[in-house]
Give the backbone structure.
Amino acid sequence: MSETKKIEGYEDMPFEAAIARLEVIVKAMEGASLSLDESLALYEEGVALTRRLNRELGEAEQRVQILQRTADGEIKPAPFTSTED
């Protein structure tokens, strides 16, 4: 399979494989040896992969819990709060 050929079923692809595919797309587009149609197809695939990865990261962020020690020494889960806003 060509590095620039679209991989079907990216929604079922493991997260790490989706990132690797996105890296391949970026490198291929930086190469500038693509036709307009190939560039547009890769761009569309890249946008779809980026949306999927962002959605998965958002879902993971919602599930993250930080263990905090209470005043009486008990450890209990606390919701994740992002410091990036």
Q: What stands out?
A: The chain has a mean pLDDT of 80. Residues 61 and 80 are 7 Å apart (CA to CA).
